[in-house]
Amino acid sequence: MLSTWTVLALLVFAIAGLRIANQYERAVVFRLGRYSSTKGPGLYWIIPLIEWQQKVDMRVNTAAVEDQETITKDNVPIKVNTIVWYRIVDPRAAMIEVKKIDNAVIQVAQTTLRTGIGQHTLDDVLKEQEAVAQVIQQKIDAVTEPWGAKVERVEMKNVEIPESMQRAMAQEAEALREKRARLIKAQAEFEAAEQLRQASQIIMQNPAGLELRRMQMITEVGAEQNTMTIVMMPSEFVSAAAALAQSVKPKS
C-alpha cells in the first residue's frame, strides 16, 4: 500500500504538469529536446522535467515595414511605407523552422517590397495600389508559407515621390483640366450654333415667327426699364427697300 508521502508526491507531480493555453494560443511541446506535440487551447498535461513548452500566439499580427527607398519600372525613386497583416497557422513550423518569426516576416516584406515595386510604373503604384499590394502579398506569402505563417493582407500606407515629380504631375493634371474645359466650351458652342441654325430654318419657313420674336424682344426691353429705345422695322420694309434700291441701280 502506498504511503502518504508517495501519494502526496504523485499528486504534486501530476499537478506540476498541468498547463493552460488560452483560446488564441497553442503550446508546442518538446520532450528531451525533440518535438512531441502541439496542445491547446484549454487544459492539458505535460511530463514535468522531461517535457517543456513554447506558446505561440495564433492571432493576427501587424507588422509595420519602415520606409523603403526603391525605384519604379520607369526609373522614379520613391519611398513606400507598408503594413503587413499575418497570422501563425502552423505553430510547429513557426517554432522549429524559423527563429523570431516576426522579424523574419518583416525582413521578407522589405526585400519583396523593393523588388515588387520595381516591376510596376509610378502610375501603377499610385493608381493601382490595391492590385500592386496584392501581388506583393502573394510573393511574401510564398516565402513565409514553409514557416507556418499566412500573410492575409498588405497595404501601402504612404507613397512619397520627389518634389520635382510632384510639380510635373501637378502640371500634367492642370493641362488635362484645361483640355477638358476647352472641349466642354467647344461642345457648348457647337450645340448653341446648331440650335441657332435650327431656329433660322424655322423662321425662314414662317416669316411671321420673326415678327413675333421682334415683338417679344421689345416687350423684354420695356420690362427692363432701359433708357435706350430700340425701334425695329418689320421685315417687309427691309425687303421693299432692297427691291427699290435694286430697281434704281443704273445698268452697266
Please describe the topology of this protein.
Elements: H1 4-16, E1 18-21, E2 25-31, E3 34-39, E4 42-45, E5 51-57, E6 61-71, E7 77-88, H2 91-96, H3 101-117, H4 122-127, H5 129-144, E8 149-160, H6 163-205, H7 208-223, H8 235-248
Antiparallel strand pairs: 1-4, 2-3, 2-5, 6-7, 7-8
Any overview of this molecule?
With 252 residues, this protein is an alpha+beta fold. Among the domains are: 4-57, no CATH class; 61-161, Band 7 domain (Tetrahydropterin Synthase, Chain A). Helix content is 52%, strand content 25%. A three-stranded antiparallel beta sheet has the order 3-2-5. β2 and β3 (34-39) form a beta hairpin. 16% of the residues are buried.
Offer a concise description of the structure.
With 252 residues, this protein is an alpha+beta fold. Among the domains are: 4-57, no CATH class; 61-161, Tetrahydropterin Synthase, Chain A.
